[in-house]
Task: structure prediction
Amino acid sequence: MKNKLRILASLLFFFFTTQSFSSPISKISFIGLNIAPEESLLKLIPFKAGQEYSSALSDGIIESLFETGLFSDISISKNENSLDITLKENPTIKYFDFELDSGSGFANWINGEKLLFTSEILNDELNDSLLSPGKPYTRKKT
Result:
């Protein structure tokens, strides 16, 4: 019985000493962030400055950032009291430029050439594929 108490006491001692040596994260910084605002990402991640950092929290941070669809690669490193999140952003669609002109000349009328696509059909296809200006482009959307 004494051996069990000693083992339990030593385990509790080691548990509390490892917790006392850990220091809370005072700063979270994003490296490689160009488009997405840092403030909105800080609200998304399940970790705040002042909390204790663990590898389980790292997985949650990476998962929450990948769910946004804004990033293709994410890595996290801890440096003393700061947490550095390195991000690689997906490209963002700026605009679409289509020219739908089969010509209005007499030769096109004789040949019977018609447009295969109209602007309405192209817009419907873009909406169905979740492509629109201002949104990030991922291979899932093609």
Summary: The helical segments are 2-21, 38-44, 55-66, 106-111, 119-128. The first helix runs from residue 2 to 21.
